[in-house]
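In response to reviewer comment 3 from the previous cycle, which asked for concrete evidence that the modeling workflow produces usable outputs, we include below a single protein chain processed end to end. The sequence was submitted unchanged, and the resulting structure tokens are shown without manual editing.
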Amino acid sequence: MTVAAVIPWKEILRHLPTVVVAAKELWNHWSSRPKRGPVDPNADVRTQLAAVTERLAALEAAETDQAKVVSQIAEQLQAIARRAALAYWLGLGGLLLAGVALLVAVFR
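The workflow returned the following structure tokens.
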């Protein structure tokens, strides 16, 4: 892993308010959308079938969006795990180097 792969915290913090606003807007959109009532059992079969088909299409679209979000979260977690592993090994190397330096200083 190269030094260029360092987490750009300044960029993340700079864009954080935009992300928060977008998340709130998304939540407001989904929480305020009109709720559909159940399919009328007394309606014509074609009308019922059309309503069920429309709702199924909406569910499939939502499932696709959710799968995309889960995929993006997995990619982000993978990147975080790689960086955490790098930080661990660099920290362990620094600790070992400090230990060697301490031993050299003591026994010199």
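DSSP finds two helices and no strands in the chain. We consider this sufficient to address the reviewer's concern, and the full set will be provided in the supplementary archive.
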